[in-house]
Amino acid sequence: MDLSQKNQQNIEFMIDAIKSKLRMASASALQSSAFTVAQYDDILDIYEIVNSKSNLSISEVEALVSELGRLRA
């Protein structure tokens, strides 16, 4: 996957990966369609943070989910 391309397909890929890594109980509440290409760089930042860590603390998960919630359209 070439994440240098800012498109909805890449947003969907990143959101799905983030949901999987965070093991979100309410993953259905976080739909990739709620995000726009204008938010791509912010989503990419979150994706890179999530993928750079093998484990996330509860407070890190809460902060990331909060940030994703803020970005939702």
Automatic annotation (TrEMBL):
Native organism: Paenibacillus shunpengii
Protein name: DUF1128 domain-containing protein
InterPro entries: UPF0435
Entry superkingdom: Bacteria
